Amino acid sequence: MGRALGLRWARNGHDVFFGSRDRAKAEAIAAEGGKRARGGDFDEAAAFGEVILYTIRDVMPSSLLSNAKVLAEKIVIDCNNSDLPEDFRFTPPIPSLAEKLAADIPQARIVKAFNTMAAPVLELDRAKLAAHRVSVFLCSDDPAAKTVVGGLAEELGFIPVDSGELERARLVEQVADFIRFQIAGMRRGPFATISIQQIQS
What's this model's pTM, rounded to 2 decimal places? Predict the structure, then answer.
């Protein structure tokens, strides 16, 4: 997810910093993004970005970063989902992963987004995505942060869908479970997506 979105944003003219436990891996990915991309460790990435895409599941920033307070006032996008159970019997996420992230870094501006699709969808070009009107569901208690993330989604060809406050991430994470069931359980493959569209009467 981080590689797919980061490279597309870098190619769209944003300065992007890829963070990893393995600096060489981050630098190798950044090399694919051209002059706008750089790579390094997690602390450098957290300090660099105004908007952070947080892709590390089940590890909170307070135990990952040397100083999680560096994320204060920054927009942090949570694109994570729970582990995929072998029998596809999902347990409803209460609290959601996004709410857990918000509790760990309370001064950050958390937005749930990009968790209802597989990485191959994120790698598609804008024209292909725009034709399918794929929804990106946005949950946040910060309307301005939600607007920023919606803009980042829209420029890639997605349709941002305001899905309410951060607590509603519980619903969005269940939508992701349904999509992952369609992808793997029903064997529709990684390009299965979901779109919310209103029929004009």
Answer: 0.93
